[in-house]
Amino acid sequence: xSLSAIFAGCATMYKTPYLERDANGxxxxxxxGKPFIVRGGELLNSSGSTAEDxxxxxxxxxxxxxxxxxxxxAWEQIEKNEGDFNFDELEKIISLAEANDLKxxxxxxxxxxxxxxxxxxxxxxxxxxxxxxVQNAKGENRPCLSPxxxxxxxxxxxxxxxxxxxxxxxxxxxxxxxxxxxENEIGLLDDSRDRSKIAENAxxxxxxxxxxxxxxxxxDDLLPEIREAWKANGMKKSGNWTEIFGQxxxxxxxxxxxxxxxxxxxxxxxxxxxxxxxxMFVNAWVISPDSPIAGxxxxxxxxxxxxxxxxxxxxxxxxxxxxxxxxxxxxxxxxFARSGNPIFVPEACALWLGDKNSAQAKALYTIGExxxxxxxxxxxxxxxxxxxxxxxxxxxxxxxxxxxxxKAEAGKNMRGFMQQKNKSDTLDFxxxxxxxxxxxxxxxxxxxxxxxxxxxxxxxxxxxxxxKSKSGKGIAYGLVREGSYKNGEWKTAKYLGGDEGGLVNLxxxxxxxxxxxxxxxxxxxxxxxxxxxxxxxDNTQIF
Length: 543
Ligand code: DGJ
What we know:
The chain has 16 helices and 24 strands. The chain is an alpha/beta fold.
């Protein structure tokens, strides 16, 4: 073998996980050179903080067909005393994951967790002089470190870089640690901006030219949240934050904080990646329509209004991920799927609001509609997610279809659907559209992949699918087969005809199961669907 072939082999061997965009611009995650869809679950904040505790969650994760666990790494735990790093527990956790064929996404709970600084080591927490805090208008310290402090940045960055060095040492090829989240739900709560002297001085300065120039270059691609405000203030190219963007909905304050948090996080990501190049992301507290005022949600976090600012400030961050707990799940993802931002949902399904049974629908929808990097409900170790939870079946289906999913182009030949308040949906496949009606006692969901002109692959539950021809011709459903993939080949378990086979529509689950159907009953079906000159199959209900 030639030397260059050996080097090429080494390069492949040591290629860490990376993101690559497909022809459609959709970002996919690759681990060990192969596409990987994160079938995830995030542990409760304190779970998995020791190997002993982590061991308790492995079996349940496997039972639910997870391939990835998201868990916190707390700064206070790895650097109890300044400069004295200890990764013993994490090393055992990584070995445990590897032994059980699970990937990990590590969540760096550094300077901020949900806006506050509850996870910083005691020596940082105590020392308010060396590690200044955000202040309120009265000049009082808040329990959050200041993103304007060089010393805070230096200390956080050192710990983060140590973490990346450790990961590289124990998992150099990224076989286990797939991605890293930098900080957690960053931003400032209870005020729209830091009122400390140093922050107020910075706020009075001109908006950095780097930001102005990058926003200008985006032109019409600039998102309306900022474009409209900028226009309303005369599209000035220099001036301070208020002069250029105005304070409607506290926008100037929020952009100012976003810029500084973004720069802070970027410095961590840049040095961390230089050590060990893993995909890195920042998660966002999604803005609730009930309290759309910066400060009611963490001001300056990478929420949908601030995507443009964060993309410029934090170029080393690969994507911004919504913690999507709100009722209108679909609209909230759409907010984040702009400006080329890849979709990954690290947290969803608010157990504390009683949302115990939507993870399966959200998983299929998110992967199907967006070709997402992955999906992960929060609190996966909560008793709600017993081995019989429907999420397990959804993840089984995603695993089974993963080769077809990764080949498909989301939004074009792959679509997802999910019932929220709607009773129906319509999906557009160009010459064919699909009307979906939901009439089950539970909420329907699924995904459709058009494998070729006439070959459709559908995984769904609780929905009736009416295919329609745009040309006005009738539609025929030929050879409807229920089954799954085995070793890459489609294997038919049952041919569906007559009542089950779809004279006018396809039923999920099929007729023979409908009376006993429940959320976990996802049927996977392939069908030839084509136009015919046949007015009886015009999709009107005939019986
Ligand atoms: C969002 C946070 O990011 C999580 O760490 C967790 O605290 C959840 N909220 C639930 O409270």
